[in-house]
Structures are given as structure tokens and as C-alpha cells.
Amino acid sequence: MIQHSSIPRSALRRGVCAVALLSAVSVPALAETNVAIYGIIDAGLLYQSRTDPDGKSKTSMETSGLRQSVLGFKGDRDLGRGLEGFFNLEVHYDTNNGKLHGTGDAQGTGTPFFRRQANLGLRGDWGSVTFGRQYGPALLAHIGTEPRAFKEQFSNLYAWAYNQYAATAGAPGTDRNTNNDVGIFFSNAIQYRHTVGPVNFGILWAPGGQAGSTQKNSAWAMGATYTGPVTLSASYQVIKDEATANDNVRHGGLGIAVPYGPFTFKANYLNARNETSSGANVSNVNGISTGVDWKWHADHTATLAYYDNKDTRNDKDHTRNIVVSNDYALRKDTTIYVQAAYVDADSGATIKTSIVAAGIPSVGNKSTLLNAGINFTF
Fold it and tell me: What biological process terms from GO does the record include (predicted)?
């Protein structure tokens, strides 16, 4: 044991200075890891002229009319040699009641806390590789060409999601895939992304984790966007059955966006085929949409869009929709929005052809919906 009396005070002072210097030197090393907290809070009122089953009107408070309400954590770390590590954690919640948003995961798998993202990865000049629960590349490819950029209300975000739900979200032994959540989020997934010139693309594979098979319960997806004088998009994804490895969902899309002064004209085509685990084809939905954005003021963007969604195997499952909206950017992080939809639903219309978050407002009827709210980001 060293006795303090045996050490000169000048040496002690030098030792303290050395410790302080080492502490100061270590701070920049810790600062190489950057962590950020971010989020979206979105809420408003929704009026609809008709509801099922009684056909009466309804007014309600709704969450996420423009964009989903989320709380996220993200970070990156310089690993040297041109390599960077990163992570993403993202919660999806409902502003109107504070609850976690419902999940499209298979029955019996629970409600994930980090529904939207729970992943980490590496990136460099060669692109990036991401491991864990994450957004699929197919939907990401079409954000620039979908007439309403897959806004959370009144867009083909819901036709996309609902066409990948019934065939994959069943209980064990039924139509089921535990790596997929409405074709937007994928668990147990590996994704490679890269940008080559004007083309950004992603390729994802979610291994099934089933003994004796590399196909059962697996999913794969790809999507690409070309950004030049015009924007072009393409995607395809397949979600396989947990028990039989059948292609329960096959989903593809094409899109284009053409800017012209303050206007951007858009057109998008989506096709979704649903089968049972035994391979029986139950639906084949075509989603055709067109629209135009008009930047009529520095702070205002108006959008007019038309959606025609039809199941070719079930002729009465057909909706025609017109949407008019205006987004007013009070500032970069705060938007007030007003949007109206006219929905003409045939007598057999289902959620597979819906652009409304809650599904078809009134089957076999014409309905008008009006949604106004505020979107705050931080």
C-alpha cells in the first residue's frame, strides 16, 4: 500500500494534471457516436357522411392524417477506414389515445414496441447493410411517384397494406408469415441499399427461420427509384407461407412523376395477388392512381388525386376515389392540413380496395370524408 506521505506534493499535482489531460483526450472519442431523438405528432378531426352498418354520419378525432405519429431514436458511429455504424429504433403510437398503434404482424406474435424499426447496420462508399426490423425497399421506391406520397390518410398506402394482411397475419397453421407486417415492415430482415448515379435501390431478404427449409416463412423484396428530369419507380416483393412456402403475396408496382414548373404530375400502378397457403388464388387487385401537386405558394402545396382500385377476381370489390388536399407549412416542422375524399364503393367493396385508414366508409354507397389536422415534427 502506498503512503501519501511518501509522495511529494509536486508529484501529486503532476499526477492530477495527467488524469485531467487523459479525461479531456477521451471526450472526442466518445463524441464520435451521435444519437438523436426525433418524432412526429399528428392529430385532427375526421368527418364522414356515411358509416356502416347504419349509414349515419360520424365525426371523430383521428390520429395521423398526414403522417404517422412516431417516437424514434437513431444514431451513428465512426468506425474508421471509411466505415460507419448506425442504428434505428422507432415506435408507432396513436395521438388520440396514447396507445401503441395496432400491428399487422401474424396472430400470436404480440404487439411490438418498436413496430416500425429496430435495426442496426453498416455503411460506406459501397452502400449500406441493415439488420433487424425495418422498412421494405418496395414501398420506399414509390414515395416520389404515388400521387399523395403514401400519406397516412386517403392514399394507396392502405390498398398496399390491406392486400398483404389477410394472406399473412393468420394464426399458426393458417395463412401466415411472422416476418411481415402489412408488406411495409419486415422482421428478421437483411437489406442492402446503394445509390449508383441517379438510381437508388434496395434488396431485402427475411430468412424464414424454419427447420429444414430456407423458403418457409421467408420474404424478399426489391425496389428502385430513378431521379432525373423525371422520377421513375419500380418494385416487387414476395411473402411466403410459414407452413407450405407458398407465395401467399406477390406484389409489384411501377410509377412516374414529371415536374413542370410549380406542378408535379404523377401516375402509379400497383398489383397485388393473394393466395391461401395451399396456393388457391383469392384476389388480384389492381390499383391505378394519378394526381398532380401544385406548389401555388411558398408555404402551400395543393394536391388533386384519383384512385381506381379493383379486384379482378371479385368484380364488386371496386372503389373509385377523388382526393383534394392542401398542406400549409407554417414552418419546416409544423404543417396544417385539410383534405377531402369522395369514395364510391361498389356493393362488394373491401379493405383491399380502400384508401381510407379505417377501411371502406360505407359499402355500396357514395361517401364524403373531410379531415383537418396539424402535424408537428421534432
Answer: monoatomic ion transport
